[in-house]
Write a sequence for this structure.
């Protein structure tokens, strides 16, 4: 089975900290003229990793990515950052650490095991 080049790129880019090996994969694979960058974007969205792919592209200095796809990935990254900021703000108004529970808190009346 042959794995499409777009999948190789997706796996190389969709990491928080691309390794040297990931960078080599990018340099080798991205230099091929047969890359369907729109397909890479679709795969990234379908697998919910578009922000990570954009981050990986920025980290590796990927220059082969088409401007249109780079713009779409950048928008996905910005939308994710906005969502995270909203979630962070919402969580800021609640306790972030669970309170210590006692054995009483875990008992269920009438279950026969307590």
């Amino acid at each position: 089975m042959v794995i499409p080049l777009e999948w190789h790129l997706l796996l190389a880019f969709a990491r928080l900290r691309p390794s040297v090996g990931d960078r080599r994969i990018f340099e080798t694979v991205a230099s091929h003229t047969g890359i369907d960058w729109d397909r890479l974007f679709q795969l990234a969205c379908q697998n919910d990793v578009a922000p990570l792919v954009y981050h990986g592209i920025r980290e590796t200095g990927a220059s082969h990515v088409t401007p249109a796809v780079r713009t779409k990935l950048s928008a996905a990254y910005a939308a994710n950052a906005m969502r995270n900021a909203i979630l962070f703000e919402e969580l800021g108004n609640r306790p972030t650490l669970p309170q210590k529970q006692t054995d009483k808190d875990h008992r269920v009346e009438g279950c026969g095991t307590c």
Summary: The chain has one domain: 5-92. The helical segments are 5-13, 20-30, 37-46, 50-60, 67-92. Residues 105-114 have pLDDT under 50 and may be disordered.
